[in-house]
Amino acid sequence: MLPSALFARAVFGFLLSVVLTQAAPQSAPDIRNLMAQLRDDRTTSPDVARQILVVVKKDASARDYVVQRLPNLINGPGSDVWVNAVQVAGKMKALEAIPSLQWAMSRPPFPAQLYVTLVPPPLQFDIVAKALSQMDDRALPSVVGLLKSGDELMRNRCVAILMNLNTPASRKALQDWLPHETATSVRVFIQTAPHR
After folding, report:
1. Residue 193: which pLDDT band, with cuts at 50, 70 and 90?
2. What is the per-residue burial (b if ≥16 Cβ within 10 Å, else e) of 28-57?
3. What is the pLDDT of residue 6?
């Protein structure tokens, strides 16, 4: 190679490395700022949650940053911060949040509504169940574990999650659970599932 070609190649490599190192950190402060807004009751909003989802789709390091912080927000007290964190976890399909979402299922369905019967709320009215149902089959072990709960409403919510997943594995989990179910409302819910 000619000396001028070697020099041009070295300069190009240097300039490329400068551009790449300057471009990479730009998303990190953005996601840090967005997460700070999501964590703050005064600034959290569905719009902030949407912005986070846009950034994490484009940047794997931003996604890692977010999924490391979601469990603490989900384990926190119910608030707008909590609502947005649960929704972000579901839409991101954040596996790291499944244990926190499983724990959050011990809370009443949210948004809170008066339930006259033990029929589960539709998933759009049960954000934790909806988030788990967005995880695909990766949430199955947690949901099946929750089916063993003594709480009839919890089991109905789990059946709704499994029905919403509508995968061969989730349908099998419903069929496997049916002989063990003692509550009539849950049995009927499983037996009338449209995807049986």
Report:
1. confident
2. eeebeebbebbbeeeebeeebbebbbebbe
3. 45
* Alpha carbon distances (Å) from 48 to 34, 36, 194: 6, 10, 36
User: CA 62 to CA 69: how far, in whole Å?
Assistant: 11
Quote the domain boundaries for residue 38: 25-96
Same domain, 90 and 113: no
State both tokens at 111: 């948004």
| Tokens describing residue 196 | 């049986």
Asked if residue 143 has pLDDT above 80, the reply is yes
Answer yes or no: are the C-beta atoms of 149 and 183 closer than 8 Å. no
pTM for the whole structure: 0.78
Widest CA span of the chain, in angstroms?
84
Query: In Å, how far from its chain's centre is CA 6?
Result: 50
- CA dihedral 111→116→121→125, nearest 10 degrees, is -20
Q: Which residue has the tokens 């959050």?
A: 104
| Per-residue pLDDT tens over the stretch 57-107 | 999 999 999 999 999 999 998 889 999 999 999 999 999 999 999 999 998
At 51, list the tokens: 């912005």
Domain count of the chain? 2
CA dihedral 105, 110, 112, 113 (to 10 degrees): -90
